[in-house]
Amino acid sequence: MSRQRKLPVGVDPALLIKDTAKLLPVPSRRLFLRGATSLGALALLTGCDIIDGPTAEGVLRKVSAFNDWVQARLFSPTTLAPTFPESAITRPFPFNGYYDEDEAPDIDGETYQLEIGGLVDNKKSWTLPELYKLPEVSQITRLVCVEGWSAIGSWQGVRLADFLKAIGADTTAKYVWFQCAEGYSNTIDMPTALHPQTQLTLKFDHKILPRSYGFPIRVRIPTKLGFKNPKYITALWVQNNDAGGYWENQGYNWFSGL
Amino acid sequence: MAIEATTNSPFVPDAAAAVVVHPLWVRITHWVNALAMAIMIGSGWQIYDASPLFRFIEFPHQIALGNWLAGALLWHFAAMWLLVVNGIVYVTLGIATGRFRRKLFPIRVGDVVRDLAAALRGQLAHDDLAAYNAVQKLLYVGVLLAGVVIVLSGLSIWKPVQFKWLTVLFGGYNTARFVHFFAMASIVAFLTVHVVLAIIVPKSLRAMIVGR
After folding, report:
1. pTM of the predicted model over 0.95
2. Which of B96, B115, B137 is the last residue of a domain?
3. Among A13, A155, A224, B78, which is 20 to 30 Å from B198 by CA?
């Protein structure tokens, strides 16, 4: 049972690939097969375009979709990520992004509004003072980066499951999609969105989330890899189509569950 | 030569069966494992480079697989199925047919010392491919255990929430990464010796291809 990735309406796959290719360093445009010289036999499977037929890369992407399916079944809605004492917090907690820290979005909290859309009863946008009034939950958990390193942080905010309830979201929908200020985006599965530790994070270490860590809102998901914890979010949509994500579209595994 | 003459004789079919060093299932699982290991190690090196555990160890791009992190991860998490399914078939048949018990045990300390000394002097005989010397037995059992450790530690890094008990068993997320790395290093060390010896004793390589 392999799931087909659906692009957002109006997106031309060929153009998207072109755009994506521009974002990557030149040697990476032919994504996976160059540099396979350690494997003489595999080197016979020559490079290929993303949209070509039954190529090695196509097979790898199919296996990755199968792994999404496996991980969705391994995911337990009640299994909690390990939590840690204050003393375990990594200080300083690292900034991480595909851009430098001083290029991170600088959002004006006074005018900021979180846009709500899709399959929800109440599409009213939320200002920061409104969000700060919602019941706060706190967690000290490990953020695991797809690169392998990890860091323990302290995050406070609104439980996403509670927020979805507050806006009258259709929680039988398949996905929640997040849009970010710098153009980053991310789609997560509904079971993960409803997990008790999944948080609309407004604070780090009990202080208003600093710019480096995603001001004004980060989505903190301790059951997923770091790149599925989007920062600087500006919109939240509940929907049934998988809109992909910045890194997922370039080959990172979609589910990326821990 | 005498053996080949015998196997060609239509009158003694049982003798042909007797000289098979590696049954077909051993040969198939061996080479499937070789392919899976090559992919896992090559892509693992590329993944390692994204966040090295040691400042002085980085794997050259030319010998790593996947070109960049996302490609390497796709290879790694595809070949893991090949490695694990093939490994389960191999271990199940190894136990069920009694091959492990027959070929790999017992391993006696005295024999290991004697055979290791002989090997270091270059005097270890390889005349009977069907019987492993004590050093071979120890290395084969050792690499099997390293295989178990590398799969389980890998699982604990992949799923430190769903299988958090396993991650605890490996000393936590960070320690599990080191365990996974050292299991790889011991498998690569084994492979170096294994491949060198297969080249020095070509008939052992032939036996793993054609069975005898």
Report:
1. no
2. B96
3. B78
